[in-house]
Structures are given as structure tokens and as C-alpha cells.
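This section describes the prediction task in plain terms. A model, or a person checking by hand, is given the sequence of a single protein chain and must write out its three-dimensional structure as a string of C-alpha cells. No templates, partner chains or ligands are provided. The sample shown here is typical of the held-out split.
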Amino acid sequence: MPHRKPTALIFLNMGGPDSLDAVEPFLYNLFSDRELIQLPAGALLQKPFARLISHFRAKKVVENYRMIGGKSPLLEWTQKQVAGTAQRLGSNFKPYVIMRYWKPRAEQVLAEIKAEGIESAIVVSMYPHYTGATTGSSINDFKRATITVYPKLEYQLIEDWYDWPNYLDALANRINEGLDNYHDLMRDEVQILFSAHALPQKFIDRGDPYRQQVEETVQGVMQRVGHYDWSISYQSRSGPVKWMEPGTEEVLQELSAAGHRAVLMVPISFVSDHIETLEEIDVEYRGLATSLGLVNFHRAPSLNDEGDFLDALAALVRERCHV
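The expected answer:
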């Protein structure tokens, strides 16, 4: 039998600094991308403005990363996710990760794939919910690099999977694990707060499906979890633009004012632990919740490399790409 050439399985993600020294250049890459955030001074001044903002923000952000071990765990988790998914798909699949704002970048990875003689790829966005700001920017970055580095590569794209049933099952399983933190007598009182990453409001206004897809994910998950009160909020709002609402801080304040004491926070647009779960939720929002009297505050575990999630990703690739 002829030997089948392997297929590259490529997971696209945002990336994060791999050391404290990398924080400022990482932030610069982030703020330089007009697909992600359009700084108000216009395209010509985007990069100088990005350099200024990243310089001033780096000091605080460095401390946040110091608190979680001095680097982002995002690359490590994405590598585990793609390796586990490739393993489930069979020996013909070779795993790769491309990050948008830090290493490994698209050009480098595509050069590796070309050198290996691999001629086809399946490319999966690790943002379940589509937005031009993240998914769109990552895919455009990949396409630009492919044209430059390896124009002959044949590839299929999976751009969103917010309603993929196996993903919803895995998310529901994490929520049930989170609910196990509460005493039986208290479980019925738990308020489930889904916290998604905020986008500048202008993306939603121009027709971006992100909010609608987040809401559909939550509805699909809650059909599986059962009868709990739930709400959706948007976190990580920073920078001089108008952001999606409601903010996570405001919703925590509303829950406290309504007399609630037990909140389970569920990171909904993230598929692994990184700065927004380990520092923003586990440190900042936990501190805020406690100060507001939300004394029974927990976070549902992230999907990370849990077996049911990797099974879901492998099934997604099989279904969408007919492999």
C-alpha cells in the first residue's frame, strides 16, 4: 500500500507572553492589530499609539502574569489540546499550533509544515464563537502567511463551533463539577454567571455574530445542566473604546444587591486556563465577589485537555472535514 502523507492539524489561538520580558512586546502586537482593536487615532497612528499604550499597561500586566507563574499557560494548553485531538484522529495527523500575537507565529509554522513535505491541513480556530476581532484576525493572518510561505498548501478551515453538541456536553460537565463545590442544601440557590470576553461594541453593531453565538452556547449548555438561575456578562474590558455590556463587575454587584450569596462563574469564550481565568476571575473577581458578600464564589474548571473536550474536538474535525 502507498504511504499516505500526513495531514497537518493546526490550532489557531491568541497566544500569550512566555516570560515577563515578553509582556510589553506581546501587548504591542495586540494593540497594533486593527482587526482586533481600532485605536481612535486612526490607522496611521495605530502603531505609535500601540507602543505608548503597551508601554504604560505593561507594568500592571507584568504583575498579573507574575501572580500566575511568570508566563501565559495558553501555548502549553493549546499544544496539549491539538496533540490529544490529533492522537484521537489517528497517526496520519500531525499537530501544530499557530499563535496570533506571540510565538509560534504563522510564518514559522508554515515553513516547518512545508519542510516536512505535508501538503494538506485542517485549521481549527480555538475561539468557539466567531468574531472578526479574534477568529477573523487569526484566519486572515494564517491566509496571508500561507500565500507568502506555502501557497500550494491545501487546507480546510473550521471557523466556529459554538453549537457543537459534544462541546456543549463537555462544558455542561465542567459546570456540574463546579456545582459540586456547593453543599447540597445550597445548590439550588447557586447563580451561574457565564463570563465571556468582551468585544468593542462597534463589532456587534456592524453585524458580528459573537453575542448571539455566546447566548446560543449558554442556552444549549443550560438545557443540559438544568434548572438554575443564570446570566451572561462580559469581562476584560480595557482601553479607550465603548465595550459590550453588561460588564462582569456590574453583574456581580447586581447579584449581591439582590441578596444572593452563591455564584458559580463559568468562563464561556475561553477553552483553557490563561490570564483571564487564573488572574482576572480567580483573583480579581473572587476578591470583588467576597467584598460584595458573595461569599460562596467558585469558578467552573476550564476545558483544558479534559478527555470529553478532546473527544469533542476530534468528532468536530471528523464531521466538518469528512476525515
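For orientation: The mean pLDDT is 96.
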